[in-house]
Amino acid sequence: MTDDSPLLEIDDLHVSVDGKEIVKGLNLKIKRGEVHAVMGPNASGKSTLANTIMGHPNYRVTQGRLLFKGDDIAELTTDERARRGLFLAFQYPKAIPGVTVVNFLRTALKAVRGADVPVREFRQMLRETMALLKMDDDFARRYINDGFSGGEMKRAEVLQMGILKPEMAVLDETDSGLDIDALRVVSEGINSFMDDQRGMLLITHYQRLLNYVRPHFVHVLYGGRIVKSGGRELAEELEAEGYERIIAEQAEEVAQ
Amino acid sequence: MTERHGVDISADSDAYKWGFRDETKYVYRTERGLSQHVVEEIADIKNEPQWMRDFRLSALEVFQAKPMPAWGPDLSHIRLEDIFYYARASDRVERDWNDVPENIRNTFDRLGVPEAERKFLAGVGAQYDSEVVYHHLREELSKQGVIFLDLDSAVREYPDLVQQYLGTLVPSADNKFSALNSAVWSGGSFVYVPEGVKVDVPLQAYFRINAENIGQFERTLIIAEPGSFVHYIEGCTAPNYSTNSLHAAVVEVIIKKGARVRYSTVQNWSNNVYNLVTKRSAVYEDAVVEWVDGNLGSRVTMKYPAIYLMEPGARGEVLSLSFAGRGQQQDTGAKAVHVAPHTTSIINSKSVSKDGGRASYRGLVKVYPGARNVKASVRCDALLLDADSRSDTYPTMEIAERDVSVSHEASVSRVSEEQLFYLRSRGIPEREATSMIVNGFVEPIVKELPMEYAVELNRLIELQLEGGIG
After folding, report:
1. Average pLDDT over residues B64-87
2. Predicted pLDDT of residue B21
3. B420 → chain A, closest CA residue
4. Which of A148, B46, B137, B422 has the most other CB atoms within 10 Å of its CB?
């Protein structure tokens, strides 16, 4: 496989939740080194897309293909997908009381690497990544997401991404709940993670994250389909004019 | 897609982890069932003084007069008439490990007792069936005047101390099984810590039932003189046998002014054992008791460590953890009785139920009239791993004083699909993700145990989750 082949390829994807179709024929290709943003209004299917890529059991792929590094992963378990290099930064991460951030990270890193991680290496990586995200050392000893503020949760998600170093990261509304300073710090963390060997999919309602993390491509998701794709200027257009015009255009096309 | 994400952590081995059984040759055992003859025979074999013989015989009368308790789990399957109430595998109480008969040593080797001892143990009182065969006390402790013996030896060597305290906290008439224990008790530990002595290494006894149909009725008595400290640990594992077995123990702990006693238990009975234990502590002025109690295995466990706060400034805490698997009922909890003013109790109970297991919290907080400025808090949390499992709480509050602060909180939670999805999205396989959630849930209690026991308890929980036990 050449580096030019897509890292993540979504082909005519249909997804149902509780028997109701939410994603209705979605196409997307992300190559190494590319940052894509998927934007859309509420209920357009954004979170369904994120959860489906990661293999949430409630999301059923009824049609189409989901390829990661050329392999169809639609039938793989969530943990197998993660071990192959996929990552999802959750919009609402779950608390696991009694499990410290440091233990959680060490267990996860061992799982994705398939081997023990030398303690010294792990500690150094943790210290550096936490410093980058301006997190106190105490944070590592807290129980993961237990009593975290919204901002702390999002930082912890990006911290995990920085430690696990997935090839393909999906970030679901990582900007929500962040004040402007936290948004800047988290964005720096995301940017320092990204390189020409990785791919990234930012899922967001607002374009403000995109002021800090510059996408190469922007897609508008509406009604379970990508209705428009473009460069960064599309995000600015959406910011200025809202989703209505693009949605109206789409409605016209369908009518024709 | 749903099927492969469903919680499937059963399967695998049905062999009980420590279900091996060595061939044991009994030097002596009584006939099946309980009678005055059997009790007299036990007293004869032990060559006991008249007061102990009388203690046993009067307890037997109480036992025979009392009905089986009907307020809790079903005990109707216990066949009291089929049980051997006394058995002895070895003739002598040993002090040197090398003198212990080889097959018995093998059992302990497999349990890792000597290794544990090398690491940090001050003394090991290991109960093999009904007689203590191995007993070791480090010289430093002897020099400090600390007594750590099996109770049988203590009756001979320190009769006055034993007679002064035995049965004062748990009288024979307290309940049917304390009466049974009083009638046929054998083995167990006697710990005496003189005034002001702080024992800085835990004292540990390792118990093991090893013969089919042999009940184990050990009895432990701990006396902490003013200003002293001791941490006593009991750990139990049992092999798997086919017919019902009974474990009815009694523990009494007396903690005098300003003293502190921590009593830690990790029990892992095989799934046919009825584990019916009465544990009680009397706590005097400014003294502290801490019960840390981990209950795994057994068919039925009934255990409610009790704290009697007798004088102002007394404090007590119970940390209790239960794991109920298939066919198991863990009926556990705690009692805090505030007799005096300015006393504090904390009860923190956690239970995990799986594969239809049933865990109940049963507790009492009682405040006597005049016991002002009392603080009592009860917290019980249950974690259910599937829809077949069950958790109940039976809290009782008897508060006869206004100036008190009493709180009770209870929660029931399930391992949620969202938690599993979150952990699995980080590459952690489902089984490991589940045990991570369970271990996190019990962490506040496990962290109170010495490292070695914490590790063992976590490992036992993993085995329970795998369905490897029972």
Report:
1. 89
2. 52
3. A94
4. B422
Alpha-carbon distance B253 to B244, whole Å? 29
The answer to whether A222 and A40 have CB atoms below 8 angstroms apart is yes
Q: Which of A14, A56, A78, A103 to mutate to test the interface with B (most CBs of B within 10 A)?
A: A78
Interface contact B425-A96, CB threshold 8 A: no
Give every CB contact of residue A106 below 8 A, 6+ residues apart in sequence: A117, A122
Superfamily of structural domain A8-255: P-loop containing nucleotide triphosphate hydrolases (3.40.50.300)
Residue-wise pLDDT for B454-464, tens only, equals 777 777 787 77
Write out the two tokens for B47. Answer: 């060559």
Q: In chain B, which residues have their Cβ closer than 8 Å to the Cβ of A82?
A: 424-428
Interface contact A87-B425, CB threshold 8 A: yes
- Between CA B2 and CA A123 the distance in angstroms is 37
Rounded to 5 degrees, φ, ψ at B178 are -70, -35
Whether residue A79 and residue B443 make contact (CB cut-off 8 A), yes or no, is no
Tokens (6 digits) for B59: 């307890």
Q: Is B424 on the interface with A (CB under 8 A)?
A: yes
Q: How many residues does chain B have?
A: 470
Query: pLDDT digits over A24-43, tens only?
Result: 999 999 999 999 999 998 88
Minimum distance, in Å, between the CA of residue B409 and any CA atom of chain A: 17
Taking the CA of residue B360 and the nearest CA in chain A, the distance in Å comes to: 22
Q: What is the C-alpha separation between B401 and B462, in angstroms, rounded?
A: 45
Angstrom distance (rounded) from CA A220 to CA A38:
6
Which residues on chain B are in Cβ contact (under 8 Å) with A159?
none
Decide the pairing of beta strands B87-88 and A168-172: unpaired
What is the mean predicted confidence (pLDDT) over A180-184?
92
What's the pLDDT score for residue B101? 57
Tokens of A135: 């997190």
**B143–chain A Cβ distance below 8 A for any pair:** no
CB contact under 8 A, A82 and B419: no
Separation in Å, CA of A237 to nearest CA in chain B = 34
Q: Quote ipTM for the complex.
A: 0.96
Judge: A59–B1 Cβ closer than 8 Å, yes or no. yes
Query: What secondary structure letter does DSSP report for B4?
Result: G
User: Do the chains contact at A97 and B441, CB–CB below 8 Å?
Assistant: yes
For residue B96, pLDDT beyond 80:
no
Interchain proximity A99–B2, CB inside 8 Å: no
Is the pLDDT at B305 greater than 90, yes or no?
yes
pLDDT at B148: 86
**Ranges of H-type helices in A62-179:** 78-84, 101-113, 119-132, 150-164
Q: Where in chain A are the domains?
A: 8-255
DSSP result, B351-400: EEE-TT-EEEEEEEEEE-TT--SEEEEEEEEEEESSTT-EEEEEEEEEE-
What whole-number distance in Å separates Cα of residue B387 and Cα of residue B404? 39
